[in-house]
Amino acid sequence: MTDDANQSQESLYKEVAEVIELIRPSIQADGGDIELVAVDEDGIVSVRFLGACIGCPSLDMTLQGGVEVMIKNRVDGVTAVRPIE
User: Fold this and answer.
1) pLDDT (tens digit, 0 to 9) for every residue of the chain, 85 residues total?
2) What are phi and psi of 39, to 5 degrees?
3) 8-state DSSP, 8
4) Phi then psi for 80, rounded to 5 degrees?
5) pTM of this prediction?
6) Is 24 in a helix, a strand, or coil?
7) Helix or strand or coil: residue 73?
8) Residue 10: Cβ-neighbour burial (10 angstroms; 0-12, 13-18, 19+)
9) Which of 7, 13, 67, 72 is the most exposed place for a label (fewest CB within 10 A)?
């Protein structure tokens, strides 16, 4: 990866991390948490859900209807948000 690509990747990661920090309080209010794991060169964001989020029947709705929409709306270059364990 070139220096420009590295810098761009770091910038994208930082922007996504800032949005995660905006989302985190509402997830924590329900006893869960969210952690940013990675942002790859294709704009795919990997997040880990913690606490009450594990096994929650609303997790898919929270991810697709809330987390993914908010990140994609606020950060150019994000193509998808995927949960990992």
Assistant:
1) 566 666 688 889 999 999 999 999 999 998 999 999 999 989 999 999 999 998 888 888 888 889 999 999 999 999 999 999 8
2) -130, 120
3) H
4) -165, 160
5) 0.87
6) helix
7) helix
8) exposed
9) 7
